[in-house]
Specification:
By secondary structure, the protein is α+β, with helices and mostly antiparallel strands. The chain has 3 domains: 350 residues, Thrombin, subunit H (Beta Barrel); 67 residues; 262 residues, no CATH class. It is built from 27 helices and 22 strands. The chain starts with a helix and ends with a strand.
């Protein structure tokens, strides 16, 4: 009876736990929001969260690479982030002989750290509100004129902000262009790989477990940021020193329990939660299904080759991971948007707004204009997806399309020899990179499949004129897969891009006819120019009108509910979210705990499996129960992952999960499948953030990797 009562209480707690919506700007943190954070358990002051004049949490949070978050965890510039964020750097540092991606890597001293070429991190210096400057210059402009003037004003603001400094800056619109903020950053370019677990840990569960809970992935990697002797950014040099940061995060190994306060700082990439119902319908009906279908084709051919050869797996690993991650997301997002009736919910919001807006001229025709705008664009929406995800999904086609810059330099009136020379040199350099990453076998199949799919799925009236007729005349029926196989083989064998001797001859003596008659260039050019000349103007008109409508609708919503706690859509600017460690019940008779353990890893373990294999010493250490100081006393095991109610999205990968004292307890790396509608609509019941427990990270580094030097560098809170 007592056991049944405990189960009932758990189910009730999971069922009625509410997730915490809001990606808040630390710079603009309102008192009402801060008070709620304190009520939930926060022990820090506002100034400890964000300060320009004093060291604060924001000084330990970095933009990692081009689309992730990282955190500084030592006074020597040590960085923690996700394994999938460091994936490209790890793969690039690897070879078949030294396969760090497969086997893992830990530098046992700083001399062993590996330079991560091309990788950089950015620290936020300050944020300023520049709304008045922008709005004064825009006045009542709309459409293309507004966009052009906005770009000019923003360019002037950025130039003034960084004048006389080595900083970088950008101005971002928030609340759909009703407010503008200036963000100033300092970029460091000497970043070195310090450690990474074997891929079988860092990607444990693979695509099967992606976006799923329970989860057992050790999704972490370790880097270090270096600076010159004065602590300033510098290109790689052996003389550079580890950066002494303004602030670094202490690491708590005390463990977590249900209802503990959890806070996440990071750089969420993008949401669109104030989207119209028309926009949601287009996403469900056209955009997401198209992306999913095209990515599935590309992934299948890449995976087919990756399984055959470790060298090909290394070559394609980073690209494959990027495509696969959001393939499953787009599929789940569309399903959740339908399941939770998000279109209908948006329509209810619009009806309420329409009632409030009665008699207010500025808002009178918003939804009629939305309908007209989407109706004009909808016939071509799939075409755009099929260009970006299909035709350009072939690496060869994408590179060939980039050669249009060379063509332009050669054919434009008054073009100089120097301009042609520079474009050729840039293309030659880009080709070297392309060939290093190219797998001919999979790409040839992708070429054939995506060209065929465009033919079958896009209306004939939108096809490039004469293109498919030419294929039919030379290779056979347009309904036959073999026709496209023969055609793609001819593209591969006939393009100078794939032939060193012919490419060198072109570089030495470039001419437009040689380029234009190259089969790969002719293919990509036919589709890109067809879209650019006929449908891109329609798309640009659609986007411009949508921006105007969205800005007006958002302005009205802010007026309609002035006392609501509003937060702007994510736009890859620093945000904080707060919530609690919580379980949840996704469906009838199913209740999920808030933690997963190594016991679960062993239950999933399949020796030799592509997604669920483990290193031998992992199994040995587990069987010995060699958990060290990282054992969770409640579970008598290592907690691998836990979930919180925090509100995150892509870009938050690698973000620190902090306790009430601002100490690191985990790294955010994923969301749950039941709440994949979160970019459009947050789900207060089911939304959970999946985090790798920092104790599992440290166990992997220390016990599994033998890198106690890294542990000794941290400030551990026990």
């Amino acid at each position: 009876m007592k056991k049944n009562l405990l189960i009932l209480l758990f189910l009730l707690a999971a069922q009625f736990a509410k997730a915490d919506e809001g990606m808040w700007l630390p710079y603009l943190l309102g008192q009402q929001v801060y008070n709620d954070m304190v009520k939930k358990g926060l022990k820090l002051t506002k100034e400890q969260l964000y300060s320009i004049n004093k060291a604060s949490l924001k000084d330990a949070i970095i933009i990692f690479g081009g689309g992730c978050t990282g955190e500084i965890v030592s006074n020597q510039g040590l960085i923690f982030t996700n394994h999938h964020c460091g994936y490209d750097a790890i793969a690039t540092a690897s070879s078949v002989e030294h396969n760090y991606l497969k086997n893992g890597f830990y530098a046992l001293d700083k001399s062993q750290e590996i330079p991560a070429k091309g990788l950089s991190v950015q620290f936020l210096v300050k944020v300023d509100d520049v709304t008045k400057q922008v709005m004064d210059g825009l006045k009542d402009l709309s459409g293309p004129e507004r966009m052009q003037q906005q770009q000019k004003i923003i360019g002037d603001i950025v130039a003034q902000a960084i004048s006389g400094t080595n900083y970088e800056a950008k101005v971002l619109p928030i609340f759909k262009g009703n407010q503008y903020l200036l963000f100033v950053y300092e970029r460091y370019k000497d970043i070195r790989l310090v450690g990474a677990p074997p891929e079988s840990i860092g990607k444990f569960g693979g695509d099967t477990d992606n976006w799923e809970w329970p989860r057992h992935t050790g999704d972490f990697s370790v880097f270090r940021v270096y600076a010159d002797k004065d602590g300033k950014p510098a290109d790689y040099s052996a003389a550079n020193l580890p950066l002494k940061p303004k602030h670094f995060l202490p690491v708590s190994i005390k463990g977590i329990k249900e209802n503990d306060y959890a806070m996440i700082f990071g750089y969420p990439g993008g949401t669109n939660r104030y989207e119209s119902s028309e926009g949601v319908k287009l996403k469900i009906d056209v955009e997401n299904p198209s992306i999913v279908a095209l990515r599935a084709v590309r992934l299948s051919y890449m995976f087919e080759q990756m399984k055959k050869d470790p060298a090909i797996k290394l070559k394609l690993a980073s690209s494959y991971a990027g495509i696969a991650n959001y393939w499953k997301f787009f599929d789940g997002e569309a399903k959740q948007l339908v399941k939770y009736h998000v279109v209908e919910e948006k329509q209810k919001e619009e009806a309420a707004f329409g009632k409030w807006a009665t008699g207010k001229t500025e808002y009178a025709n918003i939804f009629a204009d939305y309908t007209t705008n989407y109706k004009a664009w909808a016939p071509y929406a799939k075409h755009r997806i099929y260009i970006n995800e299909g035709i350009m999904g072939s690496p060869l086609a994408a590179f060939a399309a980039s050669l249009q810059a060379v063509e332009k330099a050669m054919v434009q009136s008054g073009g100089s020899a120097e301009a042609i020379k520079q474009s050729i040199q840039a293309a030659d350099k880009a080709r070297t990179v392309f060939l290093e990453e190219e797998d001919k076998t999979s790409d040839q199949k992708i070429l054939a499949a995506t060209c065929h799919l465009f033919y079958t799925d896009i209306p004939v009236a939108q096809h490039p004129i004469g293109f498919y007729d030419a294929i039919k005349a030379k290779f056979g029926s347009l309904d036959d897969n073999n026709t496209y196989r023969l055609w793609s083989s001819a593209i591969m064998s006939g393009s100078m891009i794939m032939n060193d001797a012919r490419w060198k001859a072109f570089v030495a003596n470039p001419d437009a006819v040689t380029l234009q008659t190259d089969p790969a260039f002719a293919y990509s050019s036919a589709f890109v120019k067809n879209f650019s000349s006929k449908y891109l103007p329609v798309y640009n008109q659609f986007v411009t009108k949508n921006n105007d409508l969205g800005r007006t609708y958002m302005k009205g919503k802010l007026e309609m509910e002035p006392n609501k706690k509003w937060y702007p859509d994510a736009n890859f600017s620093m945000r904080l979210t707060y919530g609690q460690v919580k379980p949840y019940a996704p469906r009838d008779a199913v209740a999920y705990d808030y933690v997963c353990t190594m016991k679960g890893v062993m239950e999933k373990y399949k020796p030799g499996d592509y997604e669920f294999d483990l290193p031998e010493n992992y199994v040995s250490l587990y069987n010995k129960k060699d958990f060290g100081q990282y054992k969770d006393l409640r579970k008598n095991d290592i907690v691998t992952c836990f979930i919180t109610t925090n509100d995150i999205t892509g870009g938050n990968s690698g973000s620190p999960v902090l306790n009430a004292n601002g100490e690191l307890i985990g790294l955010a790396f994923d969301g749950n499948y039941e709440a994949l509608s979160h970019k459009i609509q947050f789900d207060a019941v089911y939304n959970r953030t999946i985090c790798v427990d920092v104790r599992y990270v440290l166990w992997c580094i220390d016990k599994l990797g033998g890198a106690s030097n890294i542990i000794n560098e941290l400030k551990l809170i026990k």
